[in-house]
Design brief:
With about 475 residues, the protein is α+β, with helices and mostly antiparallel strands. The protein is about 45% helix and about 20% strand.
């Protein structure tokens, strides 16, 4: 996750540095229709006739938070949907999509699972029924499932070789403890190795049901006709047993400053995250906080990147991010540095972060960030696939369209005074939580400066401290 975060920040920053910010037109979410079928299935239909393409996705409100004692089960189930149906094996499905130049993908995250397809309008008659079959009639072929499980176990073993792949997982485990939000989405080597076909079938039957799902269709179609097709293809999908109940997925634990020191004996650098509680995806301050975070660590010219990379040369990249969930979220400053420079990098990261309170954000800096964000936001929702992803996210996280439609207003109305209030409200200042992954013998004394230290071994399976 860390590697992806830095790549996004750096890519967007380079683009932002290459051209001067331009005034962006007001952005509003295109019109769409929401339909509720008798079986409880939610359907979103958005016509877009610019190109002859259709993007469709099924979104199920089930993810790692529902894995309980079997971490990785939602992830395995989400990917296993593509292994074949009762009528077609994996090879037949792959060939049907590949032959038409279409794309099919699936997977699961912390709170939702998705199956998505993108294809030409002319292929809708062939591929839309196949998509419906994949969602509703997976076979979970045992032989294919075994191969998928083995690939995931190998990936989990390899992931810890690169700390930036797993630092975010340790961070969430630290912040949420044993609460559902602390469950690693990909599972652990032990938990995934133990998963069986019966576990996947049970999980699918419990959570993949029409009253816990949405179908999103965006693209070149006629709304009335597409609604009839979706009703025909998904109307007979039935739910059995009681519907999943909403659960409390946990709150960030930050009653005191803590440090998790994850020992990687062969490390020559330290990867770190510093932060605490953040916001939920549907928080009313979501948009203005994107502007403020841009200043701190959301672009190449951010304070953090300037200080830790450009001015001091302590790292090749530094960033910050609000990672949002449906009920809450986290905030983190992230970077990495040579082991011998860990103390300097952490001290400078803390000093730079403290600027939010010591100096605040002046109007010129705020105006620059506002222009940058307004230039970056609309291109994220240009294609049918992007818009389908947004609608799916809105469904999974209970986000109203007003957050999107009021984007320009919320950015433009941000003043230095309002920025100060938002900093005080949402950026964690006290009892900061820190994850360090590196050679413990080299950085143990540094770690003690930032809170109560708990040491873990990166070679131990899982992401929680081992009980003694």
């Amino acid at each position: 996750m860390k590697k992806t975060m830095i790549a996004v920040v750096m890519t967007g920053a380079v683009l932002g540095a290459a051209v001067a910010p331009v005034l962006a037109a007001e952005f509003r979410l295109p019109a769409f229709e929401t339909v509720k079928l008798p079986n409880g299935l939610t359907v979103y239909l958005m016509e877009r006739h610019e190109v002859p393409l259709i993007s469709v996705r099924a979104v199920v409100k089930a993810g790692a938070v529902n894995d309980a004692a079997q971490p990785g089960l939602s992830n395995l189930t989400g990917d296993a949907l593509l292994l074949g149906t009762r009528a077609r094996n994996k090879k037949a499905i792959d060939e049907a999509f590949d032959f038409r130049g279409a794309r099919l993908a699936g997977g699961a995250g912390a709170e939702s699972s998705t199956v998505q397809a993108n294809f030409a309008r002319k292929d809708a008659a062939a591929l839309l029924p196949l998509f419906a079959e994949i969602v509703q009639q997976p076979s979970f072929d045992d032989a294919e499932l075994a191969k998928l499980r083995e690939r995931k176990v190998i990936g989990l073993k390899q992931a810890k070789e690169a700390p930036r792949n797993v630092v975010g997982t340790y961070y969430r485990a630290m912040l949420f403890g044993n609460a559902p939000y602390g469950i690693p989405a990909s599972g652990t080597v032990g938990s995934v190795s133990a998963l069986k076909q019966a576990d996947v079938q049970r999980y699918y039957g419990q959570f993949y049901r029409p009253d816990n799902a949405a179908i999103v269709v965006v693209g070149d179609f006629q709304k009335d006709e597409m609604r009839r097709q979706i009703e025909s293809l998904f109307g007979a999908w039935k739910a059995t047993g009681p519907a999943p109940q909403q659960q409390d997925n946990g709150k960030v634990q930050a009653d005191k400053a803590r440090v998790w020191l994850v020992n990687k004996p062969d490390a020559i650098e330290t990867t770190f995250l510093i932060g605490g509680a953040g916001i939920a995806r549907n928080d009313a301050d979501y948009v203005p906080l994107q502007v403020l975070n841009t200043i701190l660590g959301g672009r190449f010219t951010s304070w953090l990147n300037d200080e830790l990379r450009v001015n001091s040369g302590l790292t090749y990249g530094a960033s910050s991010q609000f990672s949002v969930l449906s009920q809450t979220g986290t905030f983190a400053i992230s970077s990495f540095t040579a082991s011998v420079k860990t103390g300097d990098a952490l001290a400078l990261a803390h000093k730079t972060y403290q600027r939010l309170w010591d100096k605040g954000i002046d109007k010129a800096t705020l105006d620059s960030a506002k222009a940058y964000v307004k230039g970056q936001f609309p291109p994220r929702y240009e294609t049918g696939e992007q818009l389908a992803g947004l609608l799916g996210d809105m469904y999974a996280s209970d986000v109203g369209r007003e957050q999107i439609d009021n984007f320009t207003r919320d950015v433009d109305s941000l003043t230095p005074e309002r920025a100060k209030a938002l900093v005080n409200k949402h950026f964690p200042r006290n009892n900061l939580q820190t994850v360090l992954i590196g050679k413990a013998a080299d950085i143990r004394d540094v770690a003690k400066k930032y809170g109560d230290v708990t040491e873990l071994e990166i070679g131990t399976d899982g992401f929680q401290p081992v009980a003694k």
